[in-house]
Amino acid sequence: MEDIKKVLRKFAEERDWDRYHNPKNLVMALSGEIGELTELFQWLNEDESKVENLSIKNLERVKEEVADIFLYLIRLSDKLNIDLIEVAKKKIDINETKYPVELSKNNAIKYNRRDE
Amino acid sequence: MEDIKKVLRKFAEERDWDRYHNPKNLVMALSGEIGELTELFQWLNEDESKVENLSIKNLERVKEEVADIFLYLIRLSDKLNIDLIEVAKKKIDINETKYPVELSKNNAIKYNRRDE
Amino acid sequence: MEDIKKVLRKFAEERDWDRYHNPKNLVMALSGEIGELTELFQWLNEDESKVENLSIKNLERVKEEVADIFLYLIRLSDKLNIDLIEVAKKKIDINETKYPVELSKNNAIKYNRRDE
Amino acid sequence: MEDIKKVLRKFAEERDWDRYHNPKNLVMALSGEIGELTELFQWLNEDESKVENLSIKNLERVKEEVADIFLYLIRLSDKLNIDLIEVAKKKIDINETKYPVELSKNNAIKYNRRDE
Predict the structure, then answer these.
(1) How far does A77 lie from chain B, in Å, by closest CA?
(2) Which residue range forms the structural domain that includes residue D51?
(3) Where are the alpha helices (DSSP H) in B1-116?
């Protein structure tokens, strides 16, 4: 991931694209890519969306969109000095506290809405 | 990243959330998290969005949303048997071909629209 | 809709929010609201998402998010001098040509991919 | 808007697309269209995003995406028995209370965060 970060930096610098890569714009780019991924799944039902039921062609498209999302996420994190692995681990700890096993079983609704 | 993938698997299984985690639903969850990140940047201008200009409080929120996006991206990739690092590298190669340095300089518009 | 447009204009002006309301920012605001709507549906299956199966509480939340999306769409269109009804009608005509009944039956994939 | 709703109903029925049009799927379709709109604005700065600075070609694309969003929003509302005008008016009233002029001046952050 560290390597990819550096490759993306060089990629943007060589093309003079760095000046477009402020966090606001990168968040929008990330959002646009998620939109493209969403389009691939919007008319599939939940079963059809499973990897064993996707066509090879569709899975290829999905992989490309997932890659785009990952690349922009790395680029955004680079610009914000965020260590993705570090914040992910921290968030997992928060989630462990927020969604205790016993209260969360069979229940995907947000923990802070569990009394509703 | 491999570790995080396994922790997330266990996290979902312990809570019986695995049955909600089909790719279609996970794409929506990813999309929802991007929406939360977008809200943090929507009224900031490009300069204000830079890390040196974000308040500590805002940066904390940004980190949490970035983490959520990363976690759902790992989870989705796990369900689709996608190796994030592998597809990212492949996409970088595609981008190198699609956006050659000379044609792309100063030009952030999509390469396939460069004649317009 | 014309009335709502004017009320939103006055609302923004009275709060000095007009300077935040450039199209780029409004697109992000729209995107953030869609994210909130998405979160309400992400763990529901297709049947559960139908109006007759939504809880009253959930439907209330859905209505509020749908309203937010509509309000930002009107505001954005106002800023871009877009007549929503006019462009909608035009797009329907385009869609009639793009997706002829005979070729589109039972087939939700994009018309330009029908040969794949 | 009532007319458009009916045209969209007929459009979907004639193509047997109605069975794809449950609220969950329509929310995803809406989200995908927002993604396409976002892509048109992601590398523009706030000034460039203003209607007087958009190229004719770009404005045409923007209109088409705005139309797509509006059409899916009408279709979704139809499926959820939501009256767009009614919920919009209701939401405006809520916003008037939530963001009083005096407290909101010069301040685009969410009212419930104004003490932070």
Answers:
(1) 8
(2) 2-81
(3) 2-14, 23-41, 56-79, 84-98, 101-104
